[in-house]
Amino acid sequence: MRKVFKLSILQSSMSFTVDKIIKREPLVINENAKVKDAVEVMARENVGLLVIVNNAGKPIGVISERDIIKALARGKDLNVKVTEVGTVGRLITVSPKDSIYKAALLMNDNKIRHLLVMDGDKLRGVISIRDIISEERIISRFAEAAEAKPESEIGAAD
Known about the structure:
It is a single chain. The protein is of the alpha/beta class and 158 residues long. It has a single domain, classed as CBS-domain, CATH 3.10.580.10. Helices cover 41% and strands 20% of the residues. The protein contains seven helices and seven strands, in the order αβαββααββαββαα. The protein has helices spanning 2-14, 35-45, 65-73, 82-85, 100-110, 129-133, 136-147; strands at residues 28-30, 49-53, 59-64, 87-88, 93-94, 114-119, 122-128. The strands form two sheets. The protein has a four-stranded mixed β-sheet with strand order 1-2-3-4. The two termini are 21 Å apart.
């Protein structure tokens, strides 16, 4: 009975799709911009990540607050290009119709706090772990699933 209950909770969590938590248009910065430009945009817009786009407007990477802090700690100058500091080439994405559960697993598995939302080759948005955990309905469903976990599944591996 508990396993059936847990499965139905997780399935209903999966019905919450990524497109339901996109908060705004994605904020982008051109690949030729300087890190100091990224800092200004992040501060003004109160965000922790910008999508780096090429001259054609296609996403090629991201730059985050963490990237900038690590670069400063290594002695990098704020006048270097965002591509020297950000993560370029390895984009971890979800589609708007993917479940929030899938998005959360991707973030956890890749140890990241943001995902690009791509609809084919079109950037639709960025979601953060904060966006996911601020969805009270989702958190309560995950909590219910955890409470329904059969005792045989609880052990040292958890």
